[in-house]
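Translate sequence into structure tokens.
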Amino acid sequence: MSKVVIHQPEYLPWINLFIKMSLCEKFVFLDNVQYARRSFQNRNIINSNNQLSYITVPIEYSDRDTLINEIKIDLNKKWKEDHLNKFRNSYKETKHYKKVINLVEEIFSNNYSYLSELNQDLTKLIAKRLDINCNFYLSSKINAEGKKSAIILDICKKFNTSNYITGVGSKSYLEENDFKKNNIEISYIEPTNITYHQTNTKKFISNLSIIDYLFNVGFKPLQINLN
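Result follows.
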């Protein structure tokens, strides 16, 4: 029996995803469902001189029913240089700048063609540096099937899940009775309102990419417990 978190691969996701990750034993990247446009799968938000600034990975044109793991990065755009320049300009005065920029440069040194692979590697490397010890899986590799609640349940059953950990937004589509019938407890986690010192910021800016936390706080392990 195990605790499981399932989430679509996102680009440098916010800290709350890593909090959920720290509570589970198995983390599944949901990569064989339809790609959500205008989501955080190919972009996120950083603090640039006390203003919100989007960092976006350009993608090639695709049909609306294209799966996440089929989305290709537009390699004609110099997005890596753009993102690195934004990080340097925004965070060069932070305490942990060198360690974090080195991590980003390590990932960016690889030649990714697919967005999902980039997102997975960034997420897994950050999790490792934060001392998060869950095991990672791909829904496409375990042949998970179904839509919305059904595919989540299918994944949970494949992993003999005792506790499915998810955000409160999942209440809108999860068929809770189906999980009860399979003796799977659902734990809905409210977003944790974590504040920390942000260099060159007059007022704290919340809900940013994990990269903002890392530049300012470093790789200190998250001390979050599920009550």
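Note: Helices lie at 15-22, 79-91, 97-108, 115-129, 149-158, 176-181, 210-217.
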